[in-house]
Amino acid sequence: MDVRPHLALIATGMQAWREYLVESIAREYRIHLFAKSRPSWELEYVDGVTVVNTLEPDLAIAAARAVHDTDPFDGVLCWDEARIWPAACVAEALGLPGVSPDVVERCRDKHLSRTALDAAGVPQPASVAVASLEEAAREAARIGYPVVVKPRALAASVAVIVVESADLLADAYERVRGTTLPEVEEYEYGVLVEECLRGEEISIDSAVFGGKVVPLYLAHKRKGYEPFCEEIGHVLLADDPLLSDPALIKVLEDTHAALGFHTGMTHTEVFLTETGPRVVELNGRLGGDFIPYLGGRVTGIDAGLAAAAVAVGRGPAVERTRTGAAAVEFFYPEVATVFGALRVDEALLHPATDKVVPIAQPGELVERAEDGYMWARYAAALAIADTEDECRAALDAAAKAITLEPAPPGTASVPAGPAMSGAPSEPTPMASWRRAPDAGGQAGPDAGGQAGSGGAAGRAGSDGGGAGSAG
How far is the C-alpha of 344 from the C-alpha of 51, rounded, in Å? Predict the structure, then answer.
């Protein structure tokens, strides 16, 4: 009998971004995956699958309860931005560890976050939710230029724009207002006008258990393509002194307390300003952009196992057993290109190169980041070394080693990344699989449905990646 804890995993995201988490968790937990379409690569790691519209809490709860009644879950886990709220609803309905759906909504809705942080006196930028260009202009003038104009509840820095002067506000406002994601809620007051902070921006991935916030990894952001706030890379140091900085730790703890976040994994973004740390936002999930992967490699703290432990009510293993530095850099086309292949001259790679990962897939049209397209990345290079300088050398070498090969002329193309606008995904028929004892690693259909009724899985994985998979 398999005595490993039983974990309900709500979506996985894109294989390139999140497989390492699933692989790690599967070593110590039985995983039942809830996905909106039939999974592909995930089948190697999971013990069961239910195909269901994971965006609808009632459907997700019913599907989870159907499994829970015969094979009880010990916890619910989700790192997909669009689905962390339904996942919280599932955990609450089954009486499992986690924060309430209200807390998750407070984190996802940046206006609610700002309101809660302001009430608790947590340092942050001035921020106002607006519903018209006229309101935006009035509030921007009151706050003072430059300002940041951003969506109220998207992710991955999508449509976050620095506006230097009043004559540039209208274009920025319309761009932000017109940017939507199919699986993300829209708001009447859907645009935030905020004070533009100056200083270095960092992110901290933390495990929160029993109300205690334990910082795991701290990443220094590299941004580019102004006025857009595209995150072009990150640098992590295992022994970063900021991880024990009293002022930063206080702000981090106060932020979690103000939002009521007491159990789970978080990704908090902070500006280090002349007047001290100021909070940009707290996301109620693990970070993206390979930060948990790199953090685990340089510290020895396994993000997947830490997240799973917290999800089932266990204290996470957070002892640091390694030292060093790690970094990731993303690559962008100079002109809009239909992706054909990624060529890597391995002879040019630096020894500190961990891996080069294609992000775009053949046939995808990769646009220019300079034009404000937020899924303009076609590849990533990851480096792990003793020092930051060695990582930098490895990334510089990788830039010379990789080549974006366009698809042949006339190739039919689709946009890279998730659609930027459109109607929510259609519900999918529910089907369920359980791993048979003699299945040899393959899950087969049980009485709950017919294998394949959920449709073929796309390259992005069981839930198309979600808004928060890559950022």
Answer: 37
| 300 and 239 within one domain | yes
Taking Cα atoms as reference points, which of 216, 231, 151 lies closest to residue 185?
151
* 438 vs 266, more confident: 266
Residue 427 per-residue DSSP state: P
Distance CA 63, CA 358 (A): 34
In sequence order, the β-bridge partners of residue 77 are: 9
Domain boundary among 154, 175, 195: 195
Over residues 394-419, the pLDDT tens digits come to: 999 999 999 999 999 988 788 776 54
Domain of 294, CATH number, reads: 3.30.470.20
E strands, 13-112, in order:
30-35, 48-51, 75-77
Count Cα neighbours of 179 within 13 Å in the Cβ-side half-sphere: 26
The span from the CA of 149 to the CA of 121, in Å, is 23
**365 residue type, one letter:** L
Task: Give Cβ neighbours of residue 319 (< 8 Å, ≥ 6 apart).
Answer: 300, 301
Quick one: pLDDT band at residue 190, thresholds 50, 70, 90? confident
